[in-house]
């Protein structure tokens, strides 16, 4: 079930959401450290502001293009609607290989992006955040540049900033910890128990905090992979030990836990765990491998890990999919908390962040559950139906006669 198919079952809002509200393209003349100019393609898309200012990350990657930016902005529209946030969806990107840039070139690029898109972004218009190859440092440079151009401090224009510049305590943990809140909710619905095991693909920011929360709660993670390979252990992997290894710059395969089995990374798709948790890349489950995945549940922490053509195959095997726009919504909810704090000049502590995070996530999970029977048990269809329902309410007030 793709988002666009789900839209076909919506109201007049389906026609309204067919195309983005605004996509601005630009060419950025980046001055290199040696004085040369490199021209880079860049975009910012505000897909829909039906529910509020548009919200979404800025990606620096060589594969970025207009279609990708618009698709990601569409997903953000759905994610924010589902999570009950007063945000629309947006996204931005620059087609660039950041491994070829020095730190000073990255800073110039971040500032250049803001000067180019100054009229698109703003705290009540479009609020960017980090994405692939952008992080707290880029957000700090961007916020500083925007404030300079506007002649006043504008922290609420960007989220994912360093804490010293108005960032949020708990932002780093929010996606993974939020994902575990959603996992627990569906574990009850799907009758999973602590005897059920998990296999996690990827061990970056989102996967780490999910894995820590899951093992703290008593679940066994029997396999983990990262870009260098996979490790497994029937009795459960020692997640804290793996975190220590990763913090020292190692990969999951460097863990010294006894009796750990090692394999190539793609073997994680064949590992016999009850729950497969893709938390790295998009498109890893496709029509070619979907029928051989030995799990009962796929819990999507990565964006778009299951290709649309694989959904029907998974459904025919009774594999439940908990979709990305629900499972990984903790990140944008944390951004919302940061934004409200910046607008009011207030700071939130860790307990307040956890409380607001849980409130929005469980609200989104309940809205999904209410749609599951209309969606004939298809949870992906249910999340889109719940998101579209909220978007339709604003649409009808504004546009339906
Ligand atoms: N971090 C967030 O706040 C957030 C929010 C929403 C969605 N997501 C999504 O979650 C996913 C992970 O994001 P992240 O922030 O944890 O990224 P990250 O860059 O911190 O980590 C990515 C991880 O994936 C691993 N990886 C790369 N190629 C791999 C491969 N071929 N096989 C197995 N592992 C591989 C890397 O080794 C690394 O451990 C992405 O799809 C991202 O879009 C993240």
TrEMBL record:
GO terms for molecular function: oxidoreductase activity. Keywords: Oxidoreductase. Residues 168-399 form the Glutamate/phenylalanine/leucine/valine/L-tryptophan dehydrogenase C-terminal domain. InterPro entries: Aminoacid_DH-like_N_sf (IPR046346), Glu/Leu/Phe/Val/Trp_DH (IPR006095), Glu/Leu/Phe/Val/Trp_DH_C (IPR006096), Glu/Leu/Phe/Val/Trp_DH_dimer (IPR006097), Glu_DH (IPR014362), NAD(P)-bd_dom_sf (IPR036291). PANTHER family: GLUTAMATE DEHYDROGENASE, GLUTAMATE DEHYDROGENASE 1, MITOCHONDRIAL. Belongs to the Glu/Leu/Phe/Val dehydrogenases family. This is Glutamate dehydrogenase. It comes from Sphingorhabdus arenilitoris.
């Amino acid at each position: 079930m793709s988002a666009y198919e789900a839209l076909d079952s919506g109201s007049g809002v389906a026609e309204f959401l067919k195309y983005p509200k605004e996509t601005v393209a630009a060419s950025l003349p980046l001055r290199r450290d040696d004085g040369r100019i490199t021209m880079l393609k860049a975009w910012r898309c505000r897909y829909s502001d039906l529910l509020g200012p548009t919200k979404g990350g800025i990606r620096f990657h060589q594969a970025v293009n207009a279609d990708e930016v618009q698709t990601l902005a569409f997903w953000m529209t759905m994610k924010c609607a589902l999570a009950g946030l007063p945000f629309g969806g947006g996204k931005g990107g620059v087609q660039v290989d950041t491994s070829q840039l020095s730190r000073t070139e990255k800073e110039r690029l971040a500032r250049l992006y803001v000067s180019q898109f100054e009229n698109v972004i703003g705290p009540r218009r479009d609020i960017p955040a980090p994405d692939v190859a952008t992080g707290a440092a880029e957000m700090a440079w961007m916020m500083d540049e925007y404030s300079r151009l506007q002649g006043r401090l504008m922290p609420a224009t960007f989220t994912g900033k360093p804490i010293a510049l108005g960032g949020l305590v708990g932002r780093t943990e929010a996606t993974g910890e939020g994902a575990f809140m959603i996992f627990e909710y569906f574990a009850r619905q799907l009758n999973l128990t602590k005897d059920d095991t998990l296999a996690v693909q990827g061990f970056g920011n989102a996967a780490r905090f999910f894995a820590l929360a899951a093992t703290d709660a008593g679940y066994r993670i029997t396999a983990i992979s990262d870009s260098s390979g996979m490790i497994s252990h029937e009795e459960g992997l020692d997640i804290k030990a793996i975190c220590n290894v990763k913090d020292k710059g190692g990969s999951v395969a460097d863990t010294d836990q006894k009796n750990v089995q090692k394999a190539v990374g793609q073997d994680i798709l064949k590992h016999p765990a009850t729950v497969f948790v893709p938390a790295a890349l998009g498109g890893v489950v496709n029509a070619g491998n979907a029928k051989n995945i030995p799990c009962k549940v796929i819990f999507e922490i990565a964006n778009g890990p299951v290709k649309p053509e694989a959904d029907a195959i998974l459904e025919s095997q009774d594999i439940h999919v908990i979709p990305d726009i629900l499972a990984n919504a903790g990140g944008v909810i944390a951004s919302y908390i940061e934004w409200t704090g910046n607008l009011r000049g207030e700071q939130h502590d860790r307990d307040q962040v956890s409380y607001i995070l849980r409130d929005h996530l469980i609200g989104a999970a309940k809205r999904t559950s209410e749609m599951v029977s209309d969606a004939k048990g298809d949870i992906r269809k249910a999340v889109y139906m719940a998101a579209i329902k909220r978007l339709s309410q604003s649409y009808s007030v504004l546009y339906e006669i």
